[in-house]
Amino acid sequence: MKYKISTASLLGNRSSNQDSFGVAEEGGAILLALSDGMAGHDGGKLAADTFIESALLSFNQTTVYKQDPKLFLEQVISIAHKEILHIGKQQTPPIQPRTTCVLCLIMNGSAWWAHVGDSRLYLLRHGLKLIHTVDHSKVESLFERGEISAKEKRTHPQRHLLVRCLGVEQKPPEPTISNHVMLQSGDVMLLCSDGLWGPLIEEQITSGLNQPNLDHAVDFLASQAEKTSYPNCDNISAIAFRWFGKKIETV
After folding, report:
1. pLDDT of 155-165, one tens digit each?
2. pTM of the predicted model, to two decimals?
3. Mean pLDDT score across all residues of the chain
4. Under CATH, what is the fold of the domain 2-177+185-245?
5. Quick check: 116 and 99 in contact, CB under 8 A?
6. What is the DSSP letter of 108?
7. Cis link prior to 173 (omega < 30° from 0)?
């Protein structure tokens, strides 16, 4: 496979960075993973880091993804959720660390993804947005019921209220899992925390990624999100992946 991966992570106006991300490659497949610890609860960073460690370990210790990518993504999230609950109970006193997450598996020229919460994945083709994930949030529920407009979502007082995350109930949360998408040369996927997509409108994200140099594009978007949301800037994290085709080397 020939591809390019670029990452960015900024602290923003926060005392600690509770985002986490990781990338792994095994047997011709790639896993991209990003999590955003929930700062309003104890142990957000612990939950985010635990999710990434668990996801990468699952990827390296199983070949389920080769037979059933969607089942693999569901299992990754379930295992990580249980690990977060376990680690929370081990703290003194016990806590309930929580996090959102987004995963993407690339294999044989196709991509599958899954998410819980409001960490997002965007897929761009020919410089235009083809797909983005739908947040598990209160405002999305209101929007789907026709109670608020798309414009109202950006300023709604409950826009940060999530209805799904990892680390809360004993039963793992139900992720939204995509069907497979065949990639075309030049496709770009962006996994990001709400610190990046929240301050920016969709056109800023698509135009920002529509640059030949992916490193510069991701750094530019992160910087733009930080400036736009100053002085109340959240942690900002992103992984961008550009696909060039089924060749052996990376770039």
Report:
1. 787 777 899 99
2. 0.94
3. 93
4. Phosphatase 2c; domain 1 (3.60.40)
5. no
6. T
7. no
